[in-house]
Amino acid sequence: MRALAEFCGLVARAALWIAGVGLSLMTAIIAAQVFYRYVLNNSIVWSEPFSVILMGWFIFFGAAVGIREGYHLSFDILLYVVPTRVKLALFSLSDLLVGLFGAGMAIYGWQLCASAWDVKLPSLGLTGAVDFMPLVGGGVLILLFSVERLLRRAAGLPTARFGEVDMAEA
Questions:
Q1: What mean pLDDT is predicted for residues 134-141?
Q2: Average per-residue pLDDT for the chain
Q3: SS3 118
Q4: Where is the Tripartite ATP-independent periplasmic transporters DctQ component domain (predicted)?
């Protein structure tokens, strides 16, 4: 379990770095586009599609890390009134459903990549599949981190913020 946790921690850290660099790069590109358009009366033709691709990467990678750390959206009012064993079951059900959603993202994102492979993005000269690659990457990470949370809970180990209960009460 320790090896899985260390591996997932490294993957999460790398995903956050990629997301942070992507956000910073997108901000710089959009700022340059504004400068070019309004000061130089010119335009950077590839800035918008490239920024949208970057945005996909940092949104999906950031969301996946949020799931690992327990910061995804939840409706937890019921958790205040149920016993600890029920809480653990509900947390596990939530992680299972989120993992299935991640698997769906990866599978259907891969199908979208395959269908757009022969399409060329005119301003970038890249395959249209790059538009859907963040969906695949984010889906794989969501699945990985959901499985990690399920395995940690099954082993009696705490997960990050969401889903933590005193295991002595269970």
A1: 96
A2: 88
A3: coil
A4: 26-154
For the chain, give the number of residues.
Answer: 170
Token duo for residue 165: 């209960």
Half-sphere CA count of 148, side-chain side, radius 13 A: 25
3-state secondary structure of 138: helix
Expressed as residue numbers, the domain containing 28 is 2-154
Q: Rounded distance, CA 69 to CA 38, Å?
A: 41
**Could you give the 3-state DSSP secondary structure of residue 121?**
strand
Q: If you compute the radius of gyration of the chain from its CA atoms, what whole number of angstroms results? A: 20
pLDDT score at 91:
87
Q: CB-based contacts of 54: which residues, under 8 Å, 6+ apart?
A: 22, 23, 25, 26, 29
Q: Indicate the number of domains in the chain.
A: 1
154 close to 91: Cβ distance less than 8 angstroms: no
At residue 72, what are phi and psi to the nearest 5 degrees? Answer: -80, 165
C-alpha pair distances (Å), 132 with each of 30, 43, 76? 21, 26, 32
Is 170 inside any structural domain? no
In angstroms, the Cα distances linking 146 to 19, 65, 73, 89 are 19, 10, 14, 14
Q: Which of 39-48, 129-138, 152-161 has the lowest mean pLDDT?
A: 152-161
Residue 161: inside a domain: no
Domain assignment of residue 65, yes or no? yes
